[in-house]
Design brief:
heterodimer, A: mainly alpha, 19 helices, B: alpha/beta, two-stranded antiparallel ribbon, 15 helices
């Protein structure tokens, strides 16, 4: 019953041999790379062990020993990676000394070479290095990369620009961010945090003023950056947003967040109005805002929030009440018995219990 | 007529193995490209680049009869390198001293936490907070199973992200930092999973893994290779297509609001981790909501693997049941209009090669070998079959080891690497076939609706109470 000539079986055998050969080739290539990588990794460990103490000494000493020049292109790359890693954790004069050590080794040329011709990893490393050096003269070399298609590269370039000149950077980056949907909110927020409120607020205000003309996605982006702006300068926008009927819910929420930071008694009426808003998120934001500036007169309002139909609002109200500075332990302990609503009372008992040691 | 049937069956089995191995080869190619890209973006080993900007996480730790290891596990979790997180242990009606150990060692006191019952679960008896560790709470509840415990944890979690971690798992100090990166890099991310590796044979101290090692036990060695193949070839291949169908229940981070919207964990399946992920795909695709479920190869969760055949067999049968339940529950969506890559690519792949695959595989071995002995199957056909079934299996396993060596090099000692290579070869002579049998048993148990038997895993207790 042996049919050696069956074409399908032959085809199966040939195909399986091809698959096996392809896999063997892939294996051979991967094995070769793995061996190479293992050897390179061992050399790099050795390099790091030699250079780390030198760089640490350079960061501590005002007149350090001159550093030897790295022997090869690979060692220059490793040195930059090690240098970057150390710089991430340094501030102040140690940071500046390490910058000086890089300049003394004339490694900026290598950095620019990597920036222009390197692999993605090398470009990211070079951008980080320029971020630490923070010389505004690098602007023209970095700025084009902000428009790169790669989100990783463009964001790294954005972070470097912020380090070079925060105000100028955010003037460029915030409008760009409206169209870069591959720039996650979290990363944008980090950019603004690094830039600081002083740099973030002017372009943010400009975008808030042109708000109605933008798309919903762009509006969402702008509003997500509001917490990064200076509350005092955003106050006028926030109050107008809460007073006007035209503002939608996300805008009102962002505005209420700003009022919470401001803690201005003049906003009391706006906050109280928002406490009756049909949207639970709005009531929650208003509860927190009230909590930032609550006075003894507000106790009735705060206790009424314990009866809110939304869980999160009740919990927030309980946390605010439990944190009121003028209520001592005995006054707090007596409060739950005054709350008729069972769920509100439970929330308050929880909040008070969490504050006790 | 008998001969024709025999020939067609040969075609079937050969065709199946051709398709299986071609599929895995394709996945391997995608994995290699994905890993290369990942290593480029990784730039350097340091995971603390955005320290302080990461979103807060609630670590949910369901625990059942973990008296021996719970103290060390929780202590190590409290020392994780992450800016803001809480640890919420859910004691799922343990019959041993798990709760007592927790109360004594973490200075727990009962406190009146109301429960927002967004998901149903068994009765909660008491909630404790720690006076020593402000970010630790313990929930004591009636036994309801892992899914039930996780749902209770989700209800009580304080943060927008939760990370489900097994009580006997060991996370590395920077595991959370690494696994959360996709949430920072892409707004659409709703879930991420890391790599689960076998801790047997490794040095564990104070609840942290100091040095990875290869165990003496061959079953555990085979499982190391298996896990590497599953994660570095399987999940890494599906991730770029947004078609990862499993995030390991031992270590995964989820967007709490999205999981609540999708209904939380199901109680009526043993594969609650996979079922949730498939349902998340379904939920978002049916509503055309942008989302991403990502696998990140860096963050590691170490777990103890069974070293005896009885426990391992039960585990594999149970996993097969879980797979069957998860796939069948969502078959209608997967093959429908809104299936997308997870439904039209990953689901059929899993169904063909993981779900009914064991049956075809076992039948193939039996038919081809017996057929050759009785002369109904040619030597050519048998050779092709063995090349595909065993030869390709070896190659895929070895390739996953090489990828590991290329990227993370967790096993640094040459002896360990050599042992794993030997395991990758030997795995295909006996272990794989035994696994196939266990999976067929799991299928049978699922089909006959037998009650699952978790059994008791024998622990080595290597990371006891140091």
């Amino acid at each position: 019953m042996w049919r050696a000539g069956d074409p399908v079986i032959k085809f199966a055998l040939v195909t399986s041999l091809i698959l096996v050969s392809a896999s063997l080739l892939m294996m051979a290539q991967t094995f070769a790379y793995a061996q190479l990588r293992a050897r390179t990794a061992a050399r790099r460990e050795d390099f790091d062990a030699r250079w780390r103490p030198r760089l640490v000494a350079a960061s501590l000493d005002d007149e350090p020993e001159p550093l030897p020049a790295p022997e090869s292109e690979l060692e220059r790359t490793w040195l930059l990676l090690l240098w970057n890693r150390l710089q991430r954790h340094l501030r102040g004069s140690a940071h500046a000394r390490l910058n000086q050590s890089l300049r003394a080794l004339d490694l900026q040329r290598h950095v620019f070479h990597q920036l222009q011709r390197g692999t993605l990893a090398e470009q990211l490393s070079a951008l980080e290095c320029l971020r630490h050096l923070a010389d505004p003269a690098y602007w023209k070399d970095v700025e084009p990369l902000v428009h790169d298609r790669s989100a990783a590269k463009s964001l790294a370039a954005a972070e470097t620009l912020v380090a070079l000149d925060a105000a100028r950077a955010l003037q460029l980056l915030l409008p760009l961010a409206l169209h870069r949907h591959d720039w996650a909110h979290a990363r944008l927020s980090i950019l603004c945090q690094h830039a600081g409120k002083v740099a973030t607020t002017p372009p943010l205000l400009e975008m808030l003023q042109g708000f109605s003309a933008t798309s919903p996605a762009a509006r969402q982006r702008v509003l997500s950056m509001v917490p990064c702006g200076e509350a005092a300068q955003l106050a006028e926008w926030a109050r107008r947003a809460l007073d006007e009927d035209s503002a939608d819910l996300p805008e009102r929420l962002a505005a209420m967040g700003t009022l919470a930071i401001l803690r201005d008694p003049a906003d009391q009426a706006r906050i109280t109005t928002a406490l009756a808003h049909p949207d639970a998120g709005m009531r929650l934001a208003a509860a927190w805002a009230l909590g930032q500036q609550a006075r003894k007169d507000d106790m009735t309002v705060l206790l009424s929030l314990l009866r809110d139909r939304d869980w999160a609002v009740r919990q927030a109200a309980a946390d605010v009440i439990a944190g009121l500075p003028w209520l001592d332990a005995s006054a707090l302990a007596a409060l739950p018995h005054q709350v008729q609503d069972r769920y509100g009372s439970e929330a308050l008992v929880r909040a008070i219990s969490e504050r006790s040691p | 007529m008998t001969f024709e049937w025999s020939l067609w069956l040969q075609y079937l089995f050969l065709g199946y193995f051709l398709a299986l191995n071609s599929g895995y080869l394709l996945l391997t190619l995608v994995s290699m490209a994905s890993l290369r890209r990942h290593m480029q973006l990784r730039v350097d080993e340091d995971a603390s680049a955005y320290f302080g900007a990461e979103p807060p996480i609630s670590l949910l730790v369901p625990a059942y009869n973990e008296e021996a290891t719970i103290r060390t596990s929780i202590l190590s979790m409290l020392q994780l390198q992450y800016p803001s997180f809480e640890v919420l242990v859910v004691n799922d009606g343990s019959s041993d001293g798990t709760l007592q150990v927790l109360i004594e060692h973490f200075d727990l006191v009962a406190y009146p936490q109301p429960i927002h019952r967004l998901l149903q679960h068994a009765e909660v008896r008491c909630i404790y907070r720690s006076r020593r560790y402000p970010n630790l709470r313990v929930v004591d509840k009636a036994n309801g199973g892992k899914a039930d415990a996780l749902n209770a944890g989700i209800n009580l979690a304080r943060h927008g992200l939760f990370c489900a971690v097994d009580a006997d798992s060991i996370l590395q100090r920077d595991s959370l930092l690494r696994v959360v990166r996709p949430f920072l890099d892409d707004d659409r991310t709703i879930a991420t999973g890391g790599t689960v590796r076998i801790a047997n044979g490794s040095k564990v101290r104070g609840g942290f893994l100091e040095e990875a090692g290869v165990p003496r036990n061959w079953l555990a060695r085979f499982q190391i290779v298996e896990y590497l193949r599953a994660f570095l070839l399987g999940r890494l291949g599906w991730s770029p297509l947004n078609a990862v169908l499993i995030i390991s229940g031992a270590f995964g981070v989820f967007d709490r609001a999205r999981v609540l919207a999708a209904g939380g964990y199901r109680h009526d399946t043993v594969g609650e981790d996979m079922e949730l992920v498939v349902r998340l795909h379904r939920y978002h695709r049916e509503r055309s909501l942008p989302y991403r479920i990502t696998y990140v190869p860096d963050p590691i969760c170490w777990t103890e693997a069974p070293e005896d055949a009885l426990t391992l067999g039960r585990q594999r049968s149970r996993w097969q049941r879980g797979l069957s339940e998860s796939l069948l529950l969502h078959a209608g969506w997967a093959l429908g209009r809104k299936g997308g890559a997870p439904g039209w690519l990953a689901w059929p792949f899993m169904a063909m090669f993981e779900w009914i695959g064991p049956v075809i595989e076992l039948a193939g071995y039996g038919f081809m070998l017996v057929g050759w002995l009785f002369g109904t199957v040619s030597l050519v056909a048998l050779s092709a079959f063995l090349f595909l079934a065993i030869g390709m299996g070896i190659l895929l396993s070895v390739n996953s080891l090489l990828l590991e060596g290329l990227s993370f090099r967790v096993y640094s000692r040459k002896r360990d690497v050599a042992l794993l290579f030997v395991a990758a070869v030997l795995e295909n002579f006996g272990y794989r076939q035994l696994n196939t049998f266990w999976r067929c048993r799991g299928l049978w148990q699922w089909a006959s609706r037998r009650k699952p038997n978790w059994g008791v895993m024998k622990r080595s207790g290597q990371w006891g109470q140091e």
